[in-house]
């Protein structure tokens, strides 16, 4: 990337590793120097929380606002009814309108931690594309909008082509998604002066469609900017862990587990993640990312604290670090550990240690729990577990029991 931007936003995007591609670097750069640029990212409401995979886009919004521009957070109340087929092997399950609205309510909570909403020039707005998609007349839409789309060109987009190349079904419903997303961009430009759509690099084809449609129908110039699709250095998709998705909503994932996810970052990813997910200066990110041996663990704690503070607040980050120190350094029992509270009736004459490991979320099945014990990967109160047939009684739970799977995953079992 040899382009030297004049605008602070594009400079930040390049320096911190957010930028994969842009439809017109110079045109966008000049627009950002000239005044406030409203920019949107769309989020479909397929679950009641976003996960860490969306955090790169949310941080792009944060930097957009910090550099003097206006975030338009677009909730896909309309497009979720269709489902984005991009790079998926199968069709998304269709959700009811009530499910979609409930998911939007859940997702909405996260954004206020990263951007400020209001009526000012650079204040963020939260919008819902159901506002203009739900009332569309199908025949008018086909005649006025559909005629601008070439099926040949749509079939050539990588997101669709990869699905068809694998001979996996692509429904007509899903095929319409890219037309609706293009229409969103045009409507946002018409209604709110939106000049920029941002998204992951898998959205490139959809973004280009929106730029073309806006130019053809209302003769306005708009821009697209994509971020890289992030994988960890070991090739795993960002946002997934051994225990499942790393949700951003606190009611779906505790701040302690969120902190732990970042603390467990592999050494090779620390510098890159500090640039993307924190606001520490570039030089400090580079310095911390270059640490080696035991010192890199200090950098991981800084990463975990910074990211957790942005989402859950400084107190939650400090509490998570204190719990981790107590668990890892002192072998103690931290207050914030995931806790399984059992009633005496649940225990009866005794409950097997295998069941406890599964119920506490440290293993996905009894078979996995037994293998963990057989491989010397399970501990109870910091002592190795060797007997998969061990029964735990209510009397054993007079004091909480700490279970561990490996060195980094722990849970408490208590008597309710």
Give the proportion of residues in helices: 40-55%
Number of strands: 15
Strand order of the largest sheet: 1-6-5-2-3-4
User: Strand count, sense and closure of the main sheet?
Assistant: 6 strands, mixed
In words, what does this structure look like?
The protein is an alpha/beta fold and 416 residues long. The protein folds into 3 domains: 8-227, Rossmann fold, CATH 3.40.50.620; 254-328, Orthogonal Bundle (Tyrosyl-Transfer RNA Synthetase), CATH 1.10.240.10; 339-415, Structural Genomics Hypothetical 15.5 Kd Protein In mrcA-pckA Intergenic Region, Chain A (Roll). Helix content is 44%, strand content 14%. It has 19 helices and 15 strands. The strands form 4 sheets. A 6-stranded mixed sheet has the order 1-6-5-2-3-4, with helices on both faces. Strands 9-15-14-11-12 form a 5-stranded mixed sheet. The longest helix is centred in the C-terminal third of the chain and has 18 residues, at 295-312. The radius of gyration is 24 Å and the shape is globular.
């Amino acid at each position: 990337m040899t382009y030297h931007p004049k605008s602070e936003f594009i400079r930040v995007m390049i320096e911190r590793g957010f930028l994969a591609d842009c439809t017109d670097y110079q045109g966008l750069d000049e627009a950002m120097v000239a005044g406030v640029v409203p920019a949107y990212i769309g989020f479909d409401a397929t679950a009641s929380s976003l996960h860490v995979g969306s955090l790169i886009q949310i941080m792009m919004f944060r930097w957009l606002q910090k550099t003097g521009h206006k975030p338009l957070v677009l909730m896909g109340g309309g497009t979720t009814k269709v489902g984005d087929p991009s790079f998926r092997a199968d069709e998304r399950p269709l959700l009811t309108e009530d499910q979609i609205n409930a998911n939007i309510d859940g997702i909405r909570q996260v954004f206020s931690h990263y951007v400020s909403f209001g009526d000012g020039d650079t204040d963020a707005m939260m919008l819902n594309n159901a506002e203009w998609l739900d009332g569309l007349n199908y025949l008018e839409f086909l005649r006025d909008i559909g005629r601008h789309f070439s099926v040949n060109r749509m079939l050539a987009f990588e997101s669709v082509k990869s699905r068809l190349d694998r001979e996996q079904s692509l429904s007509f419903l899903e095929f319409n998604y890219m037309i609706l997303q293009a229409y969103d961009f045009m409507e946002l430009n018409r209604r709110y002066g939106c000049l920029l759509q941002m998204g992951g690099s898998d959205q490139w084809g959809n973004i280009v469609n929106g730029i073309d449609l806006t130019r053809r129908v209302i003769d306005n110039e708009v821009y697209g900017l994509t971020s890289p699709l992030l994988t960890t250095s070991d090739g795993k998709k960002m946002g997934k862990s051994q225990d499942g998705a790393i949700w951003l909503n606190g009611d779906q994932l505790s701040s302690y587990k969120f902190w732990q996810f970042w603390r467990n970052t592999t050494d090779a990813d620390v510098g890159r993640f500090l640039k993307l997910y924190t606001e520490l200066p570039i030089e400090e990110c580079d310095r911390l990312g270059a640490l080696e041996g035991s010192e890199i663990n200090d950098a991981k704690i800084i990463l975990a604290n910074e990211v957790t503070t942005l989402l859950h607040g400084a107190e939650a980050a400090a509490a998570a670090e204190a719990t981790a120190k107590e668990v890892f350094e002192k072998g103690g029992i931290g207050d914030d550990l995931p806790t399984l509270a059992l009633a005496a009736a649940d225990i009866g004459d005794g409950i097997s240690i295998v069941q406890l490991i599964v119920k506490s979320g440290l293993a996905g099945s009894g078979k996995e729990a037994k293998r963990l014990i057989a491989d010397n990967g399970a501990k109870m109160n910091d002592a190795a577990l060797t007997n998969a047939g061990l029964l735990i009684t209510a009397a054993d739970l007079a004091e909480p029991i700490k279970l561990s799977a490996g060195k980094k995953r722990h849970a408490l079992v208590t008597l309710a």
